[in-house]
Specification:
Radius of gyration: 19 Å
Number of strands: 3
Structural class: mainly beta
Distance between the termini: 51 Å
Largest sheet: 3 strands, antiparallel
Length: about 55
């Protein structure tokens, strides 16, 4: 179960996917610590729509 956190310091990048580096504080227990989140870039699809009527 995740609880809400307050972002105290952050740096983000979207060059190759998305990355977040920062310091967060738990709003329930008030512990503070670093966090590093990296997401893969989204898959790009080519879409072709045809009308067969």
């Amino acid at each position: 179960v995740e609880c809400p956190h307050q972002v105290l310091k952050s740096r983000t990048s979207s060059k190759r996917g998305f990355s977040f580096q920062g310091v967060v504080k738990c709003l329930e227990c008030e512990l503070t610590g670093p966090i590093d989140i990296k997401e893969e870039p989204p898959v790009q699809l080519r879409l072709r729509i045809s009308d067969d009527s």
